[in-house]
Specification:
It is a single chain. This protein has 183 residues and is an alpha+beta fold. The chain has two domains: 74 residues, RNA 2'-phosphotransferase, Tpt1/KptA family, N-terminal domain (Arc Repressor Mutant, subunit A, Orthogonal Bundle); 84 residues, ADP-ribosylation fold (Alpha-Beta Barrel). The protein is 30% helix and 20% strand. It has six helices and nine strands. Strands 1-3-2 form a three-stranded antiparallel beta sheet. A three-stranded antiparallel beta sheet has the order 4-6-9. Strands 5-8-7 form a three-stranded antiparallel beta sheet. Strand 7 and strand 8 form a beta hairpin. The radius of gyration is 18 Å and the shape is elongated. Its EC number is 2.7.1.-. InterPro entries: Ptrans_KptA/Tpt1, RNA_2'-PTrans_C, RNA_2'-PTrans_KptA, RNA_2'-PTrans_N. Removes the 2'-phosphate from RNA via an intermediate in which the phosphate is ADP-ribosylated by NAD followed by a presumed transesterification to release the RNA and generate ADP-ribose 1''-2''-cyclic phosphate (APPR>P). May function as an ADP-ribosylase.
Amino acid sequence: MTVGTPDLSRAVSHALRHEPWLYELELDQEGWVPVDQLVFALRERGGAWLSVDREALERMIEDAGKRRHELVGDRIRALYGHSVPARIQRQPMAPPERLFHGTAPRSWVQIQADGLLPMGRQFVHLSVDVDTAEMVGRRKSASPLLLVIDAAAAASRWVPFYQGNEAVWLADRVPAEFVARLG
């Protein structure tokens, strides 16, 4: 019996984003863990996980529709989505001019007052395109509110942005003055 890529991706995300201690893993300050430790932790769970190896992790990353994980040398990490208590360190980068965010319409009043906050995550998640923002927003509402972020202006005013992957950007928070309703 072999484990499917979506199942492996969910397990790896859980281990590297949310509860590494359940797998007896320790993330370094940038979220990396040794590949062999992750493989060992998954195999310890038994069943289909006994067949997990480095090649399975490489296939998982290669087959993913969205780049969620990164494997470099003998280390692997989740690129974004962390809810672990320890802060994952990222290097600020210049963002695209505009980014987008989808959310529930009921959140607008709070966003106008406080800006975009990470809520239960370490960072605010932003999309490079409207379609992705809408898809993310549908997790919170059947008719999501779409927001446009003036990322270039925010970055020029010392708001740090971090690249999650090619479609996802992260920020510690985005002040309300840089957030507008789309359309």
